[in-house]
Amino acid sequence: MADSSGRAILLVNLGSPDEPTVPAVRRYLRQFLMDGRVLDVPWPLRKFIVEALILPRRPQKTAAAYQSIWTPEGSPLVAISRRVRDKLAQQIGVPLGLGMSYGEPSIRSALEDSQNGGEPTRELLLIPMYPHYAMSTYETTVVAVREAIRRWAPKMQLTVLPPFYDDSAYITALTESASEWLKRPYDHLLFSYHGLPERHLRKTDPTGNHCLSRTDCCRVPSAAQSTCYRAQVLRATEAFVRQAGVPEGKYSIAFQSRLGRDRWLGPDTEHELVGLAQNGVRNLAVICPSFVADCLETLEEIGLDGRDAFLAAGGREFHLIPCLNDHPAWIAALAGWCRRPW
User: Fold this and answer.
1) Are 178 and 53 found together in one domain?
2) CB distance 98 to 85 below 8 Å
3) Domain assignment of residue 76, yes or no
4) Pair 159, 179 in one domain
5) Can you give the CATH number for the domain in which 59 is found?
6) How many alpha carbons lie under 13 Å from residue 239 in its C-beta half-sphere?
7) Does 186 share its domain with 119?
8) Radius of gyration over alpha carbons of the chain, in Å?
9) Is the same domain home to 228 and 296?
């Protein structure tokens, strides 16, 4: 994968089952949920929860959900990620690889490819495809890549792109990709971010300066913002509405994809969708900035189930704004980061 300079770039996203079948989904969920930064309980308890409580039933439901969004190219997330890789590779002069934290193509296979044939990779730029810091996405990706490098290429030098939630290039790409949808009439814009258990915020910032205890965390620069997911979400939202010209009072924030009974960031997206419809919102637009590529959580959870909940509660029009996907402004943003000194 590396060029004559020994440099290469690796894009990493979450991943997907190989196919929308119960056995494939079971394998994927086992790998995903046994990650100690996703289900952050001691290993014996995590093993019991996954094997005894989740895997006997959840794969059937999740497989059906994947079947509803599957494409001829396979998983939307993986197919879109490959298109992004291919388009970005045309704009930069450094070899570019793609890996998934769970499923294929794996991080390990991407790193092994970089050592086979040609010049071995000596310097690697890792771009975790997550705008915000979370231990279950950004952090676990960085840890997994570091561990793979330690095992398979210990002499490789790693540089990691930090979360880009308020980077001007990201905000510009997000507003440009959404501009066509925001030109259409809408009563309200809902930002649906991926949810996290509140304990994750406490774990990533044990000093207590996170947004769970400080309402001004998103506005007062502090070291806590480097790992405070909620603060980054609020700052990204403010930057977007300012650049996109969304009027005050015409938007709100919610958090989706809850799992289990623990206390999660709120309000919950499903409840918000119902509440907006019941309070008179008839034409709703929804954007999901936690995700740079459309996937199960956007296409099925919001685009199908969320739409049904909103319409059943009295809404009339529901518009899911696509993720960045392979929008030219997003490719340009990635290319700009790849060209920075590293």
Assistant:
1) no
2) yes
3) yes
4) no
5) 3.40.50.1400
6) 21
7) no
8) 20
9) yes
* Residue 231 in tokens: 């603060």
Residue that the structure tokens 């000596």 belong to? 122
> Is 298 domain-assigned?
yes
Q: Does the pLDDT at position 213 exceed 60? A: no
Number of domains in the chain: 2
Residue 243: what pLDDT? Answer: 97
**What average pLDDT score do residues 262-267 get?**
93
CA dist 320 and 285 (Å) reads: 6
Mean pLDDT of 65-81: 98
* Structure token pair of residue 276: 């907006």
Nearest residue to 7 via CA among 157, 122, 104: 122
Structure confidence by residue, pLDDT tens digits, 90-135: 999 889 999 999 999 999 888 877 665 567 889 999 999 999 999 9
Residues making up the chain, counted from first to last: 342
User: What does the alpha-carbon distance between residue 341 and residue 147 come to, in Å, rounded to a whole number?
Assistant: 24
CA distances from 226 to 192, 223, 230, 255 (A): 21, 6, 11, 20
Whole-number pLDDT of residue 118: 62
Q: Which domain holds residue 37?
A: 7-164+327-339
